[in-house]
Amino acid sequence: MPKPVSKRRNLVVLVAGIAVIAALLLLRPALQQAFMIRVALAEDSVTTELVEELLAADSAPLALAERFWVTGKIPHRVALLRAMTRGTLGETMSEVPPWLREAALDADFQVRELALGSLVSHDAAAAEPFVRAALLDADPDIKELALRHARLQKMTNLMADVSALLDHPELTVNVAVAQTLRNWTGVDFGVRLSTLGLEGEGAEETEEGIGRWRAWRDENRADWQDLAPVAAAERSVPLLEAPDFELPTLKGEPVRLSQLRGRPVLINFWATWCSSCWPEIPELVALQNRAGERLTILGISLDGLPDQHAIDHGHSHHGHGEEGDPGDANAHGMSDLRKLVGGFAESKGMNYPVLLDPEGRVSMRYQGNELPVNVLIDAEGRVVRRFIGGRSANAFDDMILASLPDSKTSVAGPTP
Question: Any long-range contacts for 243-250 (C-beta under 8 Å, 24+ apart)?
Answer without folding.
Answer: 243/74, 243/362, 243/365, 243/366, 245/361, 245/362, 245/365, 247/300, 247/355, 247/356, 247/357, 247/362, 248/355, 248/356, 249/353, 249/354, 249/355, 249/356, 250/338, 250/341, 250/342, 250/345, 250/354, 250/356
